[in-house]
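Researcher: Batch entry, complex prediction.
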Amino acid sequence: MKKFLSLKRAAALCLAVCMIAGLLAGCGGGSSDTSDGGAAAEVDTSTLTVALTSEPDYLSTCDHDSLMGVQMNLLTYNGLMRIDMETLEPVCDLAESYTQDSDTEWTFTLKQGVKFHNGDDFTADDVVASIEYAQTFPASTTYTGAIASVEAVDPYTVKITTASPTPNLLYDLAYHYNFILPKSLIESGNDFSANPVGTGPYKLAEWNKGNTITFEAFDEYFDEARKASIPTLEFAIIPEGSTRTMSLESGEVDFVYSVASSDIERLQSTESISVTDVVSVENFFLYLNCVTTDFADENLRKAIAYGINREDIVAGALNGFGTPSYSCVSMGYAESTDENAYTYDPELAQQYLDAWGGDPSTVSLDIICSNDTKTAIATIIQAELAELGITVNIEETDDATYQAAMRTTDLTSAIVSWSPANAMTYVQRFHSDRRNQTPACLTDETMDAMVEEMNVTMDDAARSEMITDIIAYANEICPFVPIYQVNYYRAYNSALQNVVCSATGYVDFCTMSWS
Amino acid sequence: MARYIAKRILYMIPVLLGVTLLVFFIMHLAPGNVAGMILGENATPEQIAALEHEMGLDRPLLVQYFDYLVGLLHGDLGTSYTTGDSVTNEIMARFPYTVQLTLVAAVVSILLALPLGILAAVKQNTWVDNVSMVVSLIGVSMPIFWLAVMLILLFSLKLNLFPVYGADSWKSIVLPAISLGFMNMASIARTTRSSMVETIRQDYIRTAYAKGLSRKTIIMRHAFRNGMLPTITVIGLEIGQMLGGSVLTETVFAWPGVGRLMIQSVEGRDTPMVMGCIILMTICFSFVNLIVDLLYGAVDPRVRTMYR
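Model: Structure tokens for the complex:
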């Protein structure tokens, strides 16, 4: 019996030692081993492997409105215009130049000698066919609806007429719905998702669903300055954050599109890996039902806005990897302003609550949260508004339920994000016609008048000034409560050069090269 | 035997019907709007209504279900709401990966579990038994997610033996199969042990010892064969489950299997894709159960007589 017990003890001890050794090897070994850099050890300069969080549903231009989908579109297609990733301003792409003939008429001169991936020559007929094709998709209306007609004046000249003055036209033409496809393939009913033929710097080589998407450089690309210098671009679909990080550390991938916040510090301290931190224009805010709840009162909304400490949210819910936001429109656009913005001020919050005059204990703020980060944010808001006597209830839902709720007035509040390419599109959201999509949003006649005036102002400087005024006015009436701007963290092998990451979330893979 | 198999395959029809009916109506009962999801936040109610009409989602539910069944009878699982591609194509692009992972993980778990379970039973109440059961207890209790990350840290980052992610070579399957197999090994080993412990206490085993047969022959020919029935059941269940997709393993190792596809489809309210995945799971489970039942017959002659 004694012998049996001692054997049992020995076995248990051995097992415990093995387990602890395994744990130490696993936990300790990974980080120390990677700091001397698996990533830079050996680089295959003919390929750039990028780890993506999710797979795009489509590689075509008109079937989606997703970040990943657009990122893929930027490789295979071009528009007449493109958004410069650093300035966020529209610049000519397939258009050589353009002139504005009147408030509603624009003439575009096209680049010559441009080829599609299938060998077709790019001409004005392709532009007409592409825009008319895009207009047949219901989801494209926001970006194609203003265009009344497109006409091919000659093989390299296109005339676009808008239904009303449309200062946003150049931005709209840079949007993926209006990217140019070969007329012959549109007419033959080509599936542009399976066979994405455009004029872009890369062409699709293979799409292994759920696994990888591979592109090859297009040798006949028209723009020498933006011609791809890395022959093969492979996107690996790696949904798990820690796996993406370890793939980069092991050198299996060269670029991680989205770094898990828990890994940022470790990667930043790794010599062979660079991490870019871009403060994006994606703004998270607390959407309030201004139609059927107490939040129709401006004072109550402001009490909430002044009662939330954004720095606590960034520190607590985002591990410090975000930027507190106080203005209704993200900082980062040329027109952005923090005039009338809401800093954290509990005393002021109490004053607005008093001005509202109601009993805070009767206010029930039910916040819909469609993911874990939003829930963490709502939990901090819950604690902070409790100090004002306001009860916050957190409703966790999936994305589909959240989106359906946003289209009704049957909700009190939700944590929402938005990331338009330009400030004008952003402030158009304040107009009451948006109640069509979000019926519980605020209606304000002064705001409507300001937005309508901006919409028809063709002079760039005057319009910019108007946009700034609109933002300041929005801050004054507080249609919702801004919380934070997302910081995009992209990690990559330090041997990569010319890495440009835009504040709208896109990465310019065409200009990247290996040192 | 052939009649028995045919009967079992025919039984699958009402099962499949029941499953499709349940899943179809549950998916439609869930809040959220498919057309709204596809068109995005900026879509107007008119655009949503137009798309719903185009997709036939504005028709009565029963009509939609009936149409789905008609398509199913023609072998058409429909078109994915989110990718616009054929559900059959999407599933068939991923199913081979799931089958590969399942088979290799099953081999790993069986190779580890059977010796462990038999050894534990034969050496019952010794340190060998205790160590075996502690190992299988660890397998049952250890989160697969954690084990997977530890395997990557050790074998990919430290020893540089296997890739971290993907499904490009035979090396890619090693770590996912080990992590999935280790978890399944635990339940198979425990079942084998308890079944074997019961069997080796039977009178006929004592008789075999009395007849002077060798210990090895008694264990492998008499005890193991008779103690296999519950183990076969558990192995069948584990394989059936793995064929339906192993979401966590697939997610950590970026393995492009059916499990991940189904989770994405549920999140995206992609009813045809969810239905397709569930139908596949049902068929896999039913076939594995059938094979398990046939194996019972192969192992136990008494069961064989019931097939006649």
